[in-house]
Amino acid sequence: xxxxxxxxxxxxxxxxxxxxxxxxxxxxxxxxxxxxxxxxxxxxxxxxxxxxxxxxxxxxxxxxxxxxxxxxxxxxxxxxxxxxxxxxxxxxxxxxxxxxxxxxxxxxxxxxxxxxxxxxxxxxxxxxxxxxxxxxxxxxxxxxxxxxxxxxxxxxxxxxxxxxxxxxxxxxxxxxxxxxxxxxxxxxxxxxxxxxxxxxxxxxxxxxxxxxxxxxxxxxxxxxxxxxxxxxxxxxxxxxxxxxxxxxxxxxxxxxxxxxxxxxxxxxxxxxxxxxxxxxxxxxxxxxxxxxxxxxxxxxxxxxxxxxxxxxxxxxxxxxxxxxxxxxxxxxxxxxxxxxxxxxxxxxxxxxxxxxxxxxxxxxxxxxxxxxxxxxxxxxxxxxxxxxxxxxxxxxxxxxxxxxxxxxxxxxxxxx
Length: 416
Fold this sequence. Notes:
Keywords: Nucleus, Repeat, Ribosome biogenesis, rRNA processing, WD repeat. Pfam families: WD40. WD repeats lie at residues 181-222, 251-291, 337-379. It comes from Panicum virgatum. This protein has three helices and 36 strands. It has 416 residues and is mainly beta. The protein has a six-stranded mixed sheet with strand order 11-12-13-15-20-19, with no helix packed on it. A five-stranded mixed sheet has the order 1-2-5-3-4. Strands 6, 7, 34, 35 and 36 form a five-stranded antiparallel sheet that branches. A hairpin with a 5-residue loop joins strand 26 (298-304) and strand 27. The two termini are 26 Å apart.
């Protein structure tokens, strides 16, 4: 009998002996103490069998137990205490949502633009070239039916949209931008919103990082001109006002395309670039405070883990790497994940877990990772071509887009 079957049988038992009266379980010679007490079993009176993973000394066991003990040099005579956790893997694949072209950017922080994950409710118009990045702006003063979105494009601009989600229609509503942000001289590659939702940060092919005021006036340094533009009859209005703004701050230092920016704390921004570097910036002083050169062009970056202090990044090789900038004097990654076979295009930490993150790749896969093992927890093969973007959605799903022009959702992932 396998370990998962043993745990399921214990959880489903009608009578639950105390921990002191339980016998040890003999498996592959080492003795494994049964850690399941009466109260733990009694909490699951209607238990349904499910797969479990197991941890030994804080590390997930990804090999047969005897092989794991040999690999770790653990004596077969040692008494081990196992911790069980639910297997983290998608249990359901939603029907893919087709698009007219490549899906190159997703943001899973708000579920309201796609009804029931399959029906598009809003189409945001106005860019003259491919959209490379998008973010929701979570404004605390918003009414229930309004939603703000910012997009970046190869047309060198950022555009802000306000969507009315309270009106239900039988076809997607077309929405035009209420504000255009200009200043980059090449494609906008990445956007992030600051923790207070007052500022935007963008990285570009022009090697610069710029900050923009979401709301502002000339006194705030946000140079605004009000222009009357005639919109499409299906757009935000026949003669809707459209604001234009310029950047308030520009960060200089990267020597090639800035592919990713993230803003984990109010005064700190991280950026990744094709110049092989990850850089930390102080928002108040507009200065670089830390940098690290990793030897590869980077495509993606995200901060997470305990205290959002770890940096995950991927790029022009199949390895997803994690660094801890709190450890001075070393550039060695603290974790490396090497199961992809193509360039890494996106990486995202789970919004509420210190251990879990996802990555997507040109190999057509989205992989789920746990810092406690070097092996992927799951590999999602929904796409038929390169996966260009991925994000967590609603905490228990992964949404991804690719060169196959599909938006895919893998759902029912239990992370506790």
